[in-house]
What we know:
The structure is a homodimer.
Chain A lengths: L8 H8 L3 H8 L9 H14 L5 H8 L4 E6 L5 H16 L4 E6 L9 H7 L5 E5 L5 H10 L3 E4 L10 E4 L4 H11 L5 E6 L8 H11 L9 E4 L3 H13 L7 E4 L2 H14 L8 E5 L13 E4 L2 H18 L6 E3 L2 E3 L5
Parallel strand pairs in A: 1-2, 1-3, 3-4, 4-5, 5-11, 6-7, 6-8, 8-9, 9-10
Antiparallel strand pairs in A: 10-12
Chain A binds a DNA duplex through helix 2 and helix 4.
Amino acid sequence: MRKKKSVSSKDxxxxxxxxxATVSYILNNVKGVKIRPETRQAVLDxxxxxxxxxxxxxxxxxxxxxxxxxxVTDRNxxxxxxxxxxxxxxxxxxxxxxxxxxxxxxxxxxxxxxxIKYYSSNRIDGIIFAFASISDEDIxxxxxxxxxxxxxxxxxxxxxxxxxxxxHLSHIQAxxxxxxxxxxxxxxxxxxxxxxxxxxxxxxxxxAMALHGYEVKEELTVLGGHDNGEVCRAxxxxxxxxxxxxxxxxxxxxxxxxxxxxxxxxxxxxIPQDVRIVAVGSSNFFELIHPTLSSIELPxxxxxxxxxEMVLKAIDKGDMVPTTVLPSEFxxxxxx
Amino acid sequence: MRKKKSVSSKDxxxxxxxxxATVSYILNNVKGVKIRPETRQAVLDxxxxxxxxxxxxxxxxxxxxxxxxxxVTDRNxxxxxxxxxxxxxxxxxxxxxxxxxxxxxxxxxxxxxxxIKYYSSNRIDGIIFAFASISDEDIxxxxxxxxxxxxxxxxxxxxxxxxxxxxHLSHIQAxxxxxxxxxxxxxxxxxxxxxxxxxxxxxxxxxAMALHGYEVKEELTVLGGHDNGEVCRAxxxxxxxxxxxxxxxxxxxxxxxxxxxxxxxxxxxxIPQDVRIVAVGSSNFFELIHPTLSSIELPxxxxxxxxxEMVLKAIDKGDMVPTTVLPSEFxxxxxx
DNA sequence: CTGAAAGCGCTAACAA
DNA sequence: TTGTTAGCGCTTTCAG
Lengths: 336, 336
């Protein structure tokens, strides 16, 4: 079972009555080399007849290219974000005959990082970081090694690196504006405790509130952690306050969106009649609950596609591609 | 930027004052070759000093191995199932220095399939099909080519191929038994229209019902399609029938579980007081709704891990590994 | 326009 | 115990 027939370009050459070089020229469409039509046809026929597939390893050996890029992500990444982005990445790379090698972002020192080792040993030609936390030191290290890479993030890192992200935070203004147009009086915020300096969700909320003349009340701001139960209790705390109950809530992530809805269900509060809810982010579960959850949807697939394009350019040309911002979209469903 | 320092084993050999072969022997721990400790140390030092990483492409060229396996899935696969399985696959492969190359299952003729081309061109050494629909002809083709592969599926395909799946359907008995112990009178079934002959969910339900002395009523069986709205209407049809309303529902997939809960919410039916719900399958969203949804959880990570192990064995030894069935688990949450 | 030949970095006989 | 050497299959000067 372990043997391969292994038709090589030499076989094709012999079959077509030409030299190996000619086969290579034809198959790679090398420009600057003119091939007589009948020769080309003969070679193409031989290829088909022998079912020849160029050995990519041998090819890579010669070209110093593995024709694959590493996609690295944190282990605990939100599945949906990553998968959707990965689809885009995959399609973008596949169009250029590049493949995706999946790596996780876990290491002690950067030198020991899997993606570095993969790069050093020529298993990948470049790297796409998809929602992975990478330190400044790591970036410096990669820059010093001349490793082509691109980052995909929701929030711009603010660093001078090739990066694709989205403008979802700017849509918070539209959400607040929409709330206003619906006659909403008090708007609450529920989201995770900021863990990175560049997480500007709460600030964006505050700015949008100010813009539309709303007052941001401390007691209407929930910052929750990893425990779902705790988050629900905190949100229910908001809602049970008979006097100051908000009539709209901005949930800063899909998980917080779901938990906000859940909290309402637990208290028998009607959505959107009693309280309107909008979540920041995408999920395929927003349509599977009652009521369906309005949200700011991220262009995840396109972000992946763009990242693929950028990393290929970085690999080919060696130049860092400037940061790209792709547009998100405020999708109004039943909950708002 | 495009240049590499490219320390080769030759450099290491020179630095250590030995031959290339010796370096190779030491780094690959070739057995049957004894190396003097001081020589080994000298080489190891040189490796560290020069920061040498063996070129995996050159290595692959020699060994006829790419050290990576293709993971192929249908495009529209459930994200959660796939991602969780992929994690297991990745960890299993990574432990043997194999990497994951992500491929999609889309093609006209099998000869044109991406995974076949990848295999033929030596980009992957084997294939794991994760929840991908593969026809019998495709299997035959792969067998005839001697391609090492393994399939990961929820349902056993019943074909004589290396396969890892789970016994989740057998837990339906436990679910029905649990319903019975809670004094449930009428149990309904809600699930997708069977699209494959080997989808035995409904049969398993019927058998479990019979086993516990329940009658399977035609009017308490909902088979729905792709449209969420339609599915909800069908389920609500069940629930609105005042006389024959079921007091428990088995939802045959995560999506149907969510939609069943949603339907109850839309009608103001209490869970689990009025109707108990259990879903077949895993999802990280079951904890994010009210009430949390009971389910039969699949060992997705372990399935991936096992598949990795099996495909590596198939690659190494060339023999097909027998089908493995991993245990699922009935997890009782608030909805039942 | 096409062919001969060198060589990418590695492994594995075979020699020493 | 270690070194010499011959390729793996491909691309690519350089000749013809």
